[in-house]
Amino acid sequence: MSASIANTVNTDSPNSQSSLTEWLDYMQQIHVSAIDMGLTRVLPVAESLGLVQSAKDDAYVFTVAGTNGKGSTTAVIAQMCQAGGYKTALYQSPHLSVFNERVRINGEMVSDETLIDAFSKVESARLACDLTLSFFEMTTLAALLIFAEADCDVWVLEVGLGGRLDVVNIIDPDMAVITNIGIDHVDWLGDNIEDIGSEKAGILRDDITLIYGAATMPDSVQRLIKSHNATCYQAEQDFSYRVVDTQSWQYSNAAATLELPRPALSLTNTANALSAVLASPLTVDAEGIAQALRTVKLAGRFDYRKIATRHWLFDVAHNEQGVEFLLAQLLPLWQEHVSRQSSPSSASIKILFSMLGDKDIAMVAQRLSDAGLPITDWYIAEIDHPRAASIDELQTALAVYVKDAAIHVCTDLQQATQAIIKDSKPQDLLVVSGSFHTIGEALTALDVNECL
């Protein structure tokens, strides 16, 4: 797309005095589509900014792709590297409440001023190249620029969509991680595991190490591993884990067996992250690993909290693998939750639910409804997002699969959050799920500014 087309949308770039909100609004307007796969437009701007070589020359780079679990995996890798004394950059997306959540150095969100300075530099390079970039492309380049200018020792980068054509892939990784491969984003990645696997394995480079976090691997990924002469460590073949008790777990690979504290995140994703750190040349001792696991958190990923006398579980599950993961952990959590209540027989589960319209709403509703959990109520509202599922779409899906629970229609997530609190008891478990946006709006409604 030519620059002239973008300029018909908005010709006035913000300046260094503009607010972060003004910059984010502007960047959402300068390209005709929110998702535009490919690196053709991004690379000239990245090269102009000196980004393509800066990370490879000065830092050790972990790049993490996969259908689910990328956020947890990157969070654990970053926490371990930080515990090892490395100045660690972490890039994740999307955010829940504030954009700054996406860009962290040593666990701290970067400031508005740092982001604005980087946006201004990316915008100048974009204009000099006479190109348009999407919101995600602009903001990712800004994050990479911040990491380069901060001279970070380690970069931990979460792929936004796919791998091969994602902006993150302009940086050559030293270590690649693919958490798992499932059917999602079919409009951009394909509608079968082989095509999706090929896209995600596009983060591989010659002679690289890959951590593959699932027991089964598509043929397309195997071919790319071979063509790149990559070394692959695969879950359940080269490393594994087992639960010891509620406080500890055991990780094993060919070289070591470690008994470690249980983190607040998925053990599957934690094992993948630990495998990546152990396979790298970075030095993180056993105490550093244990410290990282005791402290690592990630908002919205099986995120259990007590807020305003209510027990909440926030999980972004929005596709088949995500729901399966949620349910695998929710069943034992529910049993533990009930055992702690003074009147367990009266405890129930209520769900605050909304999704984007391009997701399989019916499948998610069916899986949750058929899980054998005591779900008594669903509270639905439309997300404040251009791709949000409408109330009609949500109601249609739930009407088919929800048979033994009440469905409450609310005008927005603010009202839905208030309603679920009003209708619940302290012994109930309130589950918020379906999308990052659902959780972000619910946390805002609860006036929870802490996004870990």
Can you offer a commentary on this structure?
The protein is of the alpha/beta class and 452 residues long. The chain has two domains: 3-295, 3-Layer(aba) Sandwich (UDP-N-acetylmuramoyl-L-alanine:D-glutamate ligase), CATH 3.40.1190; 303-445, Mur ligase, C-terminal domain (Protein-Tyrosine Phosphatase, Chain A, Alpha-Beta Complex). The protein has helices at 3-7, 20-27, 42-48, 51-58, 70-83, 112-129, 135-149, 186-189, 193-200, 219-227, 267-279, 286-295, 320-339, 361-369, 391-401, 413-423, 436-445; strands at residues 60-65, 88-91, 103-105, 108-109, 154-158, 175-178, 209-212, 231-234, 239-243, 248-253, 257-261, 303-307, 310-315, 349-353, 375-380, 406-409, 429-433. Residues 1-10 have low confidence and may be disordered.
Q: Name the overall outline.
A: globular
CATH T-level topology of the largest domain: UDP-N-acetylmuramoyl-L-alanine:D-glutamate ligase
- CATH class value of the largest domain: Alpha Beta
The Rg value, from CA coordinates, equals 22 Å
Q: In CATH terms, what is the architecture of the largest domain?
A: 3-Layer(aba) Sandwich
- How are the strands of the biggest sheet laid out side by side? 4-3-2-5-1-6-7-8
* Arithmetic mean pLDDT: 90
Query: How many distinct helices?
Result: 17
User: What fraction, in percent, of the residue positions are helical?
Assistant: 25-40%
* CATH superfamily descriptor of the largest domain: Mur-like, catalytic domain
The helix-and-strand class reads: alpha/beta
Strand tally is 17
How far from one another are the termini? 38 Å
